[in-house]
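Q: What does the assembly look like in three dimensions?
Context provided by user:
Components: two
Sequences:
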Amino acid sequence: MLECIDLVKRYKGYDAVSGLSFAVHKGEVLGLLGPNGAGKTTTIKMILGLATVTRGEVRITSGVRIGYSPETPYFHPFLTGFEVMIFFSKLQGMDRKTRVRQIEEILEMVGLREAGDKKVKVYSKGMLQRLAVAQALLGKPDILILDEPTSGLDALGRVEMIRLINRLKSEGKTIILNSHILSDVQKVADRAVIIQNGTKVKEIDFRDEHTSKDLESTFIEVLGGAVDDSIDYK
Amino acid sequence: MTALIINSFREKIRNKTLYVTAIVGMLVMLMLTCTGGLEINGQKMISFKQMVPVGITVINLIGSLLAVMISLNTIPNEFERKTTHLVLVRGIRPWQYMFALTVGNIITSILCVLILFASFAGFCIFWGQVGLIPRALASIIMLSLNTAVISAIVSLFSIKLPAFINGILGILIYFMGVFHNMLTVAAGAADGAGGVVVRGVMHIIPDFIAVQNQASNFLVGNPVDIYPLVVQLLCIYFVLTLTFVTFRKEV
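A: Here is the predicted structure of the complete assembly.
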């Protein structure tokens, strides 16, 4: 469905992504794992066309639509959750009838149906993250890219988000989950690609009994013991 | 694109600083034009006709400052908050996005000038010229061409330049435009390569004073030269066209 082939992103003097290759298949959840600065977000930006590709290629099956939920979503605080969704649906050129029906369905799915009429300024961080996922679901995308969806959330917020991702997974959504929280990725992903210094250092299939047992050890092992403090192992 | 313009407008009109500046501007305008104590070059301003250019100048100044304030941060904020990501992934082209935000800034700036019109109406009432209020409104709309130009220029520059430099540049362009006649004469007298550069710069600086004069002329019933107004419209068109081809390398 989506394939990154020998992807390189060069900034002045260094490669943020250096020869990264991986593929995402229909209906699976792929975790992009790595410490801060590993090149995960740059990779996502290249997939989304927000950053130019220095070398390599992003191959997306024709007609595949992508939804994107950013790490730190900003929505105008004076808008209600429903109005935020209306705004983005208008940008997508959805007609009024489809728009209203779809927004109601999505807000219900992400657990914001009741809060849809409230201004975004009163939303908790967890609610904002769920609204970010909600706007990404507009237009029924084939692939959903979630950038650090549980980052900065409290325990309850994390549980809610993991539940939501699992629900999307059960509905057959293809998801790329960018995270530095190992346990969260392990809870929902089918596979994970560990990235360090812009390069893939390991690919893990959680459906395989042997590899799914101890992600933490695998992670420390592949990063050669040079473990970044920013990684949340629990 | 309309959704982007409306959203940008809705965000801007919530900015309390704008209203405070507008109210201060209105008070300054009323104090200068309605207290009857204003003197220019030792000559006391005693008639409505004498006060009109003063009123128009004050509205132009405050309107332009508000336009700079409004237009300075709209686009950089979008990049900083990464709203750009959520918009661009939806197939909106960068030029559509920049154009929409710039148009949003222009509309908000013009609205501010129309708010300032309230003080101008007060000025007309003070001088017993109530019948001239509709004409004053048309005059202010004419003047809003200047506001639209300065808003468009600052918006365009904000795509690439830091806010501080852009703000200074915007105000500088405004004052160069207000003293356009004087500076053009000075540039004409300058020699050498420097003179050529200064003359070149004066060619691209919008002639704000010419529009301001036409707005005054219209209000007091003098003949209006349409040429500066058309040039200002073309300037808006040109700057808006430049938003089609100006974007940041990385978002």
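Follow-up: The longest strand of chain B covers residues 39-40.
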